Amino acid sequence: MNGNTQTAQSRATVFKEGWLVKKGGNRKNWTKRWFVLKNQTVSYFKSKGDQIPAGSIPLNDESIKVNEDEHSKKNFSYSIVTPWRQYWIQAFSKMDKDEWIKAIRQTIPERNRKDQTTSVGDKLQDWMVNQLYAGFLITTEKGNSGIMASILGSKKSENYFILKNTNLYLFKSKPEADNQQGLKANVPDRCISIRDANIHDTGDPCTMSITMEDGRNILLAARTSSDKEKWMGAMMFATLRSSDPQTLHKSVISQLKSKLRESVFAEQFIAMGGVPLLMDLLVSCPPELQMQAIIALKETMSYHTSLDLIASEPKYIDHIYNLLYSPYPAVARFALEALFLICALQEKVYSFLKTSALKREKNPQKPFSDIVKLLHSLDKNTKLNALTLLNNLLNACPSDDEAKELLKSWTEMGILDILKGLMVPGNEEFLHQLQAFEITTGYDMGVKLAIK
After folding, report:
1. DSSP-based three-state secondary structure for 338
2. What CA–CA distance (Å, rounded) separates 217 from 211?
3. What pLDDT score was predicted for residue 348?
4. What's the chain's average pLDDT?
């Protein structure tokens, strides 16, 4: 391997790094820079060991191409063609060039690798397809650190931003998507990758903060508080979608859970596909993150669009039902709550729930027996949620005959004795659910006396 470059197999985030020569964008001079390829981004630094890059080239846009053709005056050169610029880069040998091209192409999304010769003149609308969000944002006078200050400026100004994949494209003015001159007439002034960034609410009605992986900070302000929530919803969706569930930090889900209590943010997040994203997280994230994820999902259930989507997909019901068997009692408790919310408002999910139950339970003649067993839990809220779900299941039964069969199977399991043993004065919420059970089943367990 060439001495000027190395592939970092031992570090999961760094795919390749080494010295290369880059042609300047304005002065057109060729300057030696230390290049690092990681997380679908090529960053270049003035010196090896610098923490803040002189610039970066995000590779996760579907229009990014690598052109092997050499510059007329530079051997072993090649170019990375983006929607806004053609980056000329020179390696120190043919082997070095080939290794870098191979590494970069492996990073670019699969569908782009077949055509790596598209010119920089691609029309703007070709790369604006599937943008997640767009609009004006105000760069604040303070708070932008390092190279961000030079990118965005130290004075307050308004720029047009386009969010696509996990890239923020910055324009000094709003681009014209139908401009027939295409890219040349609408070159973004900067592209900022937020792939591994944390999106924060500053507490100000219109201002949000983006903290980059290397600690750099960007403060951006929307025109209105509603617009800010939409931007945050879009950016959180974008960063979550690109994250590895196994390495996702607890604070990311925790912040999402909190932001979902705000209606504008939640509606934006749901509209962009946030519910399937949370479902994927529930299945693939570590158990210690599942509680945060199920609470975040429960927050979305305040909206009919989310509830309808979950209720229409048996696999989503199955994912939540499986959480009842989590080794973490809090996860099972919140899963019960999510299920009784769905069951109470969407009776059609009964058959999905029954199918999920029969997959996991040993006795097909006693569906939902594992929920009955949760009445023995040491956690009082788990008992409450289990009884609430059992009540909702009885009410959601498609026929009186099925409800009678269901109750018969639970009675054989001793549910009446279990409930009588839990009838303790003072636990009002549980007693009210017991009273609902009495009304539904016709059994008189003396709950009125306990309530008094």
Report:
1. helix
2. 5
3. 81
4. 81
